[in-house]
Write a structure and sequence with these properties.
- 48% of the residues lie in helices and 0% in strands.
- The chain has six helices and no strands.
- Helix 2 packs across helix 6.
Length: 129
C-alpha cells in the first residue's frame, strides 16, 4: 500500500471513529401547554362544529354550551361539575338535552382524545359559566 493510500485510509478511519463518538443528543422535553388554551383548541377542533359557546349564539346541531359550567355544577346526579362534564363527553347519551335525540353526539371521544386533551377540554368547559 502506498503512503498516500495509507494516509487516506487512516484519515477515513479517524473520521468514521469521530462520527460514532458523538454524544447522544439531549432530549428536549415537550412544551408545557396551558390547559385552558389547549381546551379551547380541543373545542375548536372537536366541538365547535355543533356547539357554540357564546351566550345568545344560535344553537347548532348540538346545544349552545354557554353556561354549561353552571349547569354542570347544579347537575341532579350528585357528581362534581368536572365529573359530570367528563361523563357527558365520554357518554353523551347518559343525559340528553331536551330537543336533542340520543345518538346525535358521537361516541368517539374516549378513543380520540388523550387523557390530557380530555382534561384540558373539561377545564375549558368549566370556564363557561
Amino acid at each position: 500500500m502506498t503512503p498516500v493510500r495509507l494516509l487516506l485510509w487512516a484519515a477515513l478511519v479517524l473520521a468514521l471513529a469521530a462520527c460514532g463518538a458523538a454524544a447522544p443528543p439531549t432530549p428536549v422535553p415537550p412544551p408545557t401547554l396551558d390547559p385552558l388554551a389547549e381546551g379551547r383548541r380541543m373545542h375548536l377542533i372537536w366541538c365547535s362544529g355543533c356547539h357554540a359557546v357564546e351566550a345568545g349564539a344560535p344553537a347548532g346541531l348540538g346545544p349552545n354550551l354557554a353556561g354549561v359550567a353552571t349547569l354542570a355544577a347544579a347537575n341532579p346526579d350528585g357528581l362534581s361539575a368536572e365529573a359530570w362534564l367528563r361523563r357527558e363527553i365520554l357518554d353523551p347519551n347518559a343525559v340528553t338535552t331536551e330537543g336533542y335525540p340520543p345518538g346525535l353526539m358521537p361516541l368517539i371521544y374516549g378513543q380520540s382524545l388523550s387523557a390530557e386533551q380530555l382534561d384540558a377540554l373539561v377545564a375549558f368547559l368549566l370556564t363557561l359559566e
